[in-house]
Amino acid sequence: GSGCGGGKRQPLTIIRAGNMLTKFESKSARVKGIAFHPVRPWVCSSLHNGVIQLWDYRVGTVIDRFEEHDGPVRGVDFHLHEPLIVTGGDDYKIKVWDYKLRRCLFTLLGHLDYIRTVQFHPNATQFPWILSASDDQTLRLWDFQKRSCLSVLTGHNHYVMCASFHPSEDLIVSASLDQTVRVWDTTGLRKKQLGGGGGMDFPGMQENGSSRNAGSSAAAATALNVQAELFGTNDVVVKYVLEGHDRGVNWAAFHPTLPLLASAADDRQVKLWRMSETKAWEVDTLRGHANNVSCCLFHPKQELVVSNSEDRSIRVWDVSKRVGVQTFRREGDRFWILAAHRSQNLLAAGHDSGMIVFKLERERPASANGPGDKLYYVRGRELFCHDYARATGGSSGVDVPIASIRRVGQQAQTDGIGSGPRFLSYNMHNPTEGNVLVCSDVDGGCYELITFSLTNAGGSVTDGKRGSCMGPGVFLGRNRFAVLDRNKREIVVKNLNNETTKRVSAPVPNVDCLFDGGASGRIILRADDRAVLFEVQSRRVIGELTAPKIKNVVWSPDGTKVALLCKYGVVIANRQLEQLCSISDTVRIKSGAWDVSPTGGTASNLFIYTTLHHVKYCLPTGDTGTIRTLDNPVYATRVSKDELFCLDREARSRVLTIDCTEAKFKLALANKKYGQVMHMVKHSRLCGRAIVAYLQSKGFPEVALHFVRDPQTRFRLALACGNIEAAMESAFALEQQQGSDGKARDVWGELGAEA
């Protein structure tokens, strides 16, 4: 709930104590500064012990560490385009590092006390500026190309705890223990620097950076530096002083696009402020933290503020409703710093014993294949039907809107914290109308049943049939579906009027999820690290197998096989849930789809899956391989011929071309279709040692012969398959190659023995 300080009473809010989606966790000394790399999957953390660590958060490894600062390093930032990192420490030094050269390029001296934050200008190509905030009660602007101080911003009368540039305007915000937040206007400095009139032109500054007269310009720059040191400069002026916190302010941040500010202070409050051209005022106070609030920021994509505190919690607030909507707690660690990724939905938080990279909600769109060439999926608050059959050149088909999904639940009014649909199930057993179950995690789990006409798109839609459940719902037959009761963990069967017709207790303990069972009346239950195929009517277990951390199941179009997608692997089983193969991967698996090509023998035999950064294949024989790389994760929905249809994280339909030759080749071999194999040997781009080794290991030396030019290998293979003519040919070739020394004689001896 919320305390009530001065002003109006806030309504008590139900705060969901969430379990965050942690993507990466590091163990280290106390983390005081964090920065995401703008494009690579890297996060830089600066530590209280003076070390700077560069982590790859996708793989979870330290790429590099930089140790030159003496004492804690509180500020760190990446340059947008160049391989540069800037850091600021308690040794009064600002250091600029080149992470490709792996060394410190130079040090900027001038501050007279601890440096709290450092930042490159967001428009880094035009402004080679660094902004720093220090306990010496000043902010400084530096030109890192000239390695000189441009301006000293004085006015705060206590430590300046943070300072940052506005993402697009000529503004800077700073927060200080003097209990104020200041907004500064840098227009004068910009004009002076870029020679756009206003103020004196910087001597020796030309567009190409060459100086007119090196001697005099250096002298003038020195004079300016001295002047800046002594008197401050009027290039940067205070625009607003925001007063309202009654303790020191630790952090202040701009909204990426709106004229809003958020600030975090030792009075345990987060305040929201609004700015106009002429003034700024306090809009609201967010109460709930139980100790000093160390940092806050606006979520880059959603209307949320995220704050963290020495009370060992991270809190998420709804900006429009101005209430807390989520809290994450740690056992023993105080939080010190937050960072948000520029373009991805990722946040990072630094605490006493390391850092975490996390998301507030999943980004997998809810989707399900329907009959024919149709895919049903949710984008935003709309349910769409995507018709692949109507694909034209360049497009993957046509989107038909079916229905709007209404928001339910208490915190479901807030986008961005996991209130969106997570699972979608389509009723394949009902040919006369469309039935879709949309399930979300709101209020512990709930479903909505949506029914619509299959012939008249956009015709009458029935919705509003809702209930609570745990995980996805599953259709059992033409007019029945099953959900899992989250309290009793029993299977509840309902009809299409949403009336309960039967309750069945689970055949095994700890069931926490239901999946499609591949045929009417059947479901797959997930319990611990097991999958159990269960027939609801007869209450009997048909099969079970071990599969750790199952995320999803994908049935082949002909219903003969099922792929169980786990966090780090894929298990393929038959329709009785008897395992055919199991493969594991080092990177998280995101999605998968069976091939549905009408010809070529791959349909229901070739399974394509995606990880964070690859498209791979898996065959029921256990053979796997990589098909291509991905820039961003996609969610596979359909594979046909050489095309992978998928949804991206924005739930937009995309088509990727894939080359499955290697998979088709292995499949043809496994199915003993030698005609097809030989055709591929002659006409495809397959080659290389790997294929030869593969053929030999699988016991097909005669096929491997077609791939090999090297006489020694040809000789071995020819012997292996008893092809004496080919062996003789190779023996002659070897003799010519090596002369008639001992080795060639061995070859003839071997050949004689074989013959």
Q: What does this entry look like structurally?
A:
The structure is a single chain. This protein is mainly beta and 755 residues long. Helices cover 13% and strands 44% of the residues. The protein has nine helices and 56 strands. The strands form 14 sheets. The chain has a five-stranded mixed sheet with strand order 1-26-25-24-23, with no helix packed on it. Strand 28 and strand 29 form a beta hairpin. Helix 3 runs antiparallel to helix 4, helix 7 runs antiparallel to helix 8 and helix 8 runs antiparallel to helix 9. The longest helix has 18 residues. It is globular, with a radius of gyration of 32 Å. It starts with 15 loop residues before the first strand and ends with a helix. The N terminus is likely disordered.
In short, what is this structure?
The protein is mainly beta and 755 residues long. Helix content is 13%, strand content 44%.
SSE arrangement:
Blueprint: E1 16-17, E2 21-27, E3 31-36, E4 42-47, E5 52-56, E6 61-66, E7 73-78, E8 84-89, E9 94-98, E10 103-108, E11 115-120, E12 129-134, E13 139-143, E14 148-153, E15 160-165, E16 171-176, E17 180-185, H1 187-193, H2 214-231, E18 237-243, E19 249-254, E20 260-265, E21 269-275, E22 280-287, E23 293-298, E24 304-309, E25 313-318, E26 323-329, E27 335-340, E28 347-351, E29 354-359, E30 367-369, E31 374-379, E32 382-387, E33 398-404, E34 421-426, E35 433-440, E36 446-453, E37 461-468, E38 474-477, E39 480-484, E40 490-495, E41 500-505, E42 511-516, E43 522-527, E44 530-535, E45 540-546, E46 550-555, E47 561-566, E48 569-574, E49 579-584, E50 589-594, E51 607-611, E52 614-618, E53 624-629, E54 635-640, E55 643-647, E56 653-657, H3 661-670, H4 674-683, H5 689-697, H6 701-704, H7 711-720, H8 724-738, H9 742-754
Helix pairs in contact: 3-4, 7-8, 8-9
